[in-house]
Specification:
alpha/beta; seven-stranded mixed β-sheet; 14 strands; binds ligand F0G
């Protein structure tokens, strides 16, 4: 190709207006929401980068599939299309639909874990951790050392630490019922995991007789990074790479709200017949019959089409490039962020940007509030509010204080991204005047969703 511009590989067929607000309106909205961005009304947000989960735009092919949804209670045609799409990619024998990823987690952990067990993962996502802890088991993160250094460049910063994996499985015999790798590593910065790392982790687990699972939410983005960065894969298709990734595992959990390109849905897929039967029994109790699992037939159709579209090379090239593009602008401006940029999101490094705010005043939370106040952008804190509250009720600062700007799939264009970059540069210029927050009211678990806050020093931004 003689041209270097990577364009959005789609044209727009339906549009949804977004609403501008004044700074005074946003200030009032923040107060009303208890300084918690989860509690804002979405229509008060201009650019919503809270999550890439369920927020994507569906294609005309998906909408056409929706019209063909078979709503039969049992044995629906849509289920078999869904099952075929999942099996083509994963090669896994049993495909169990669920209403979203965390339902797959709950069913799997509810079936496999007992109190005192340990689950190892490169980094557990918050719902994954909560579902492990709900079983009174320990969710232990074992990323490599590079993951602890946000500014360090590494092609596969999502890798699991193989030495710690080997050592833990040797020392804790019988206490680790399964090992998971999250691709891409969402809480660790959206960083990819290499094929070599997945293969080696699988070998270690197999040698110890421990089942090995993928949290596959962003498997296609991970496959693209392998194609771009790992020796021997540049000529492989994303589908072939994904198939190899799944060939090393005994099962996976999946939120179809990410790389399923759908607004709702998920699945659990696994090879073991007995375990699959046990999981299906729980599924019937809480989600639905095994050929719909809490989803409508039309949702299954949307996911079946989405799973094929997500592996399109033009789509993945545009997807990963759009995050890299904003990362390049911020790098030029010296704005600290997790390097290199991840697949679905950009992660600002609030600990480095706001060294004057102690972890107890939640620097990343404060930064996310200022992004909204100044530019109407909604992001999410991945720091001490999300991870600082320990199961025993004590506080422990998180490894990193990050603000994630997650990009919904196929929703925003390059001018939206340019606007976000401009707001970030403006907020970075204000950084010395940004103040921390304190918690006013907080639930015992997953507090980031509902806790209420106030500025710890009278205002989010002080002075002139
Ligand atoms: N695992 C990972 C790695 C995730 O990122 C998520 C969701 C889940 C599991 C749970 O899936 O939402 O369908 O129940 N992540 C969203 C996010 C919410 O914003 O990153 P779910």
């Amino acid at each position: 190709m003689p041209f270097k511009t990577i364009i959005e590989p789609f044209r727009i067929k339906a549009v949804e207006p977004i609403r501008r607000t004044t700074r005074a309106e946003r200030e009032a909205a923040l107060q009303e929401a208890g300084y918690n961005l989860f509690l804002l009304k979405a229509e008060d947000v201009l650019i919503d980068l809270l999550t890439d989960s369920g927020t994507g735009a569906m294609s005309s092919g998906q909408w056409a599939g929706i019209m063909q949804g078979d709503e039969s209670y049992a044995g629906a045609r849509s289920f078999f299309r869904f099952e075929e799409a999942v099996q083509e990619i994963t090669g896994l024998k049993h495909v169990i639909p669920t209403h979203q990823g965390r339902a797959a987690e709950r069913i799997l952990f509810g079936t496999m874990l007992k109190p005192g067990d340990i689950v190892l993962n490169n980094t557990h996502f918050d719902t994954t951790r909560a579902n492990v802890e709900y079983r009174r088991a320990e969710a232990r993160d074992i990323p490599t050392a590079a993951a602890r250094r946000p500014q360090e460049q590494h092609p596969f910063k999502g890798n699991i630490d193989l030495d710690v994996l080997e050592q833990t499985l040797s020392e804790q015999k019988g206490c680790v019922p399964l090992v998971m790798i999250t691709v891409t590593n969402n809480s660790g910065g959206g960083q990819p995991v290499s094929m070599a790392n997945i293969r080696a982790a699988s070998e270690i687990c197999r040698r110890h007789g421990v089942p090995f699972f993928l949290d596959a939410c962003r498997f296609a983005e991970n496959a693209w990074f392998i194609k771009m960065r790992e020796d021997g894969y540049s000529d492989a298709t994303p589908l072939a790479i994904a198939q190899e990734m799944f060939s090393y595992v005994d099962g996976c959990t999946m939120s179809a709200k990410k790389d399923g390109m759908a607004n709702i849905g998920g699945f659990l897929a696994l090879n073991d017949d007995t375990l699959a039967q046990q999981c299906k029994n729980v599924l019937i109790l809480t989600e639905g019959f095994p050929t719909y699992g809490g989803l409508a037939g039309y949702d299954l159709e949307a996911i079946a089409v989405g799973l094929r579209e997500v592996l399109d090379e033009d789509y993945l090239r545009y997807r990963i490039r759009s995050v890299e593009y904003i990362g390049e602008i911020l790098s030029r401006e010296g704005i600290p962020m997790v390097q290199p940029t991840g697949g679905h999101a950009l992660y600002l490094d609030a600990k480095t940007m706001l060294p004057h705010i102690p972890p107890g005043e939640f620097p990343a939370w404060a930064l996310s509030l200022v992004l909204y106040l100044e530019g109407g952008i909604r992001s999410v804190e991945i720091g001490s509010v999300m991870f600082g509250l320990q199961p025993d009720g004590t506080e422990k600062p998180a490894m990193n204080e990050l603000v994630r700007l997650a990009f919904p799939r196929r929703v925003y264009t390059q001018s939206h991204v340019d606007y976000v970059a401009e707001v970030l540069v403006h907020v970075n210029n204000l950084r010395e005047r940004i103040c921390g927050v304190r918690i006013v009211e907080s639930p015992p678990v997953l507090r980031h969703f509902t806790a209420r806050f106030e500025p710890a020093h009278g205002a989010l931004i002080v002075g002139n």
